[in-house]
Amino acid sequence: MTIDQFRALLSNTDLFVYERSVDEAENTVAALVRRGLEKLLAVAGERAETFAGTEENGLKLCPLTNENAKALMALFPYTKPASHKGHQFTMGFGDRLGLATPGHIRALGDHDIYPVLAQQSIRELNLTHRTFGDVISAAAFNVFQEGYKKGYGADGDHLKTKDEIQYALESGCTMVTLDCSEHIHQQAVTFPQEGIDALYTALPEAVRAHYEGVYLDKDLPVIGALSAEELRRIVIVFHEGIEHAVDCYRYIDEIKTVPVDFELSIDETLTITTPAEHFVVGNELHDAGITPISVAPHFSGAFEKGIEYAGDLNAFARDFVVHQQIADHFGYKLSLHSGSDKFAVFSTVGRVTKGHVHVKTAGTSWLEAMRVVAEADPDLYRKAHKFAIEHRPEAERYYHVSTNVADIPNIDLENDAYLPEYMNLPAARQTVHIAYGLLLDEAWFHDAFFAVMAAHEEDYYAALVKHLGKHVRILTAETDV
To answer: What DSSP character marks residue 74?
Structure first.
């Protein structure tokens, strides 16, 4: 089967063909196609038998299932996620809908950025009733749709247990972001010194001897000397989290079947990560023979979902420089979580890291989808908007936000032309942002929403190119020269 023969078969159908997807391997030709609003995989040739579908006009038309995604990845390896080790600039693009990847790819433009196109947390999977397999399959089909052959990763984001790690890796994830928050003694940060001393004295002698031998009375790189009081507090807060990280890394090493990128998240804490805390965590990993691909500290300021950074930009820059020096010392990248829409810090991040950084975005792509809904189906947006406001207390069980619904203009007083502007208002953005799981659970919204997105997919891609392209341009302004 040749591509010309394949195109001749397609010309006798009513199928719309995504031209960038047409490709050939092993005497087999395939393309992503659409009939009405339904996407299918069209395949013909020797390997067509590996796909499940129905025969039509000499073609096999296949639904976009997980099994057909596996067959696609076997035929075209560039559609399968891979490690991003060795790539300087990487970005995570969470796609909670399975629709955004073409827009994410286009937003990258010609920038040398390795995308992690399949990125989801267990929380996101639970709220959207998806699996890691679903997320990776959607990315694979969309990568194929775009004819994107530069490679991409799949991140099991904010995993906390070995069971979650096993699930992610068995599903095909090539990156694990380990969230140690449940093993970090967060409250101890505020304990009086006598409380810290009591907890420290109760630790096994071997633990105390180790930390005191490594860190006391030493001129440490980047951070200088640590006092005994400072070290004790760091040990009480972090030593169990460090042990958990080492244990999980060893577990990944045991069960992985392909190279896996290991990121450590210590950002889900109540307080800012100090340089001394970061150094001790990094040094303990180093001494255990572990160099993560990236580490996510809790940086100064507020990194809330869907809105701009809030905080002292000068203080952020000063702290970020030191965190970068620590990352450079140990040989890993910094990772910026909740990186969506934090335009105020992007210039600093790009300049200080010189483009050696990982930045995660997610919910902003859902918000751009809702912007499309506001433009294409005002009645649906109005209903969804009111639902999000009404159910915000329930949504706040999953996400911390600080905006107030009282600051959202009454939608009944606004005309349809204004509705997309709600996605530019912080309180409205956060309210709609955190309600995604609740909205997608509603049949009245779910079915109408996906119909709108299917009918306006190019509008959605254009919105993502505009919005996430702005992220990329500012982040890379100092690194593309």
So the answer is: H
**CA pair distance 50, 71, nearest whole angstrom:** 6
pLDDT at residue 480 greater than cutoff 70: no
Q: What tens digit of pLDDT does each residue of 382-400 get?
A: 999 999 999 999 999 999 8
Residues 6+ positions from 415 with CB-CB distance below 8 Å: none
Residue 349 exposure: Cα atoms within 13 Å on the Cβ side: 27
303 backbone dihedrals φ, ψ, rounded to 5°:
-115, 70
Cα-to-chain-centroid distance, residue 326 = 24
pLDDT for 479 equals: 62
Predicted confidence at residue 178, as pLDDT, reads 98
Closest by CA to 324, choosing from 289, 355, 285, 301, is 355
- Please say if the pLDDT value at position 19 is more than 50: yes
Length of the chain counted residue by residue: 481
Identify the band that residue 268 occupies on the pLDDT scale cut at 50, 70 and 90.
confident
In angstroms, rounded to a whole number, what is the distance separating the alpha carbons of residues 466 and 81? 25
157 is catalytic: yes
For 238, the token pair is: 């972090």
- Characterize the bridge pairing of strands 175-179 and 261-265: parallel
Give tens-digit pLDDT for 307-358.
999 999 999 999 999 999 999 999 999 999 999 999 999 999 999 999 999 9
> Would residue 263 show up in a list of annotated catalytic residues for this protein?
yes
Based on DSSP, count helices (H) and strands (E) in the chain, helices before strands: 19, 14
Mean pLDDT, range 403-412, rounded to an integer: 98
Helix (H, G, I), strand (E, B) or coil at 224: strand
With beta carbons less than 8 A apart as the criterion, state whether 456 and 376 touch: yes
Looking at 252-356, which runs of residues are DSSP E strands? 261-265, 294-296, 333-336
Strand partners, 120: 156
**Which residue is catalytic, options 124, 263, 375, 377?**
263
Per-residue confidence (pLDDT) for residue 315, from 0 to 100: 97
Spatial distance between the Cα atoms of 59 and 86, rounded to a whole number of angstroms: 40
Structure tokens at 316: 């952020």
Look up residue 305 and give its DSSP letter: T
As given in the structure block, the two tokens for residue 379 are 């009645």
Which stretches within 361-421 are classed as H helix?
363-376, 378-390, 392-395
Average pLDDT in the 154-183 region?
A: 98
What is the average pLDDT score of the chain?
97
Distance CA 121, CA 164 (A): 10
Given 146, 155, 157, 341, the catalytic residue: 157
Contact 82, 261 (CB under 8 A): no
Q: Specify the pLDDT at position 478.
A: 62
Q: Which long-range contacts (CB under 8 A, 24 or more apart) does 209-217 make?
A: 211/235, 211/239, 211/280, 214/283, 214/287, 215/280
